[in-house]
Input
Amino acid sequence: MSQRIGRVPFISWAGVATAAASAALGALWVTLTPTAEQTELADRTWEEFAEQDPEFASLYSMDLRILGMLGTGLGLLSAIVSVVPYRHGERWAWYALWLLPVSFGGAAARMLADRYSAGYVYAAISGVAVLGLLLPARSFLRSGGVGLPHSE
Output
């Protein structure tokens, strides 16, 4: 018994890999960019805010770096999974890769709700990942049922 469906079409795994790499780069930007350059405040600068509440500003900066590192890790892991096991049709990889559009789609929804324009970038990344995962969905779901191995 095998948990493979055969090779996944190039457009599918390459689309997911591109979305994952883009997500990793976007999250790396959050990690490496100074907080003042990525935080919009009404009626004051980041420096004024940080001077008024240095402890909170420090915690906020740390949170941005941590979220950026986590997003970078998820993006890199997703890219690796899409290029190796997903490309070869491993069923577990198809299911696992849904974490990419769910996570970054959720972040996009929150950003857009808060009127933060970077949400459009994460929505596009999520959209490309969803399309890449939906293209071979019939093969993954039909070959032995959901979660069940198929015989060759």
In short: Residues 54-86 form the longest helix (33 residues). The mean pLDDT is 90.
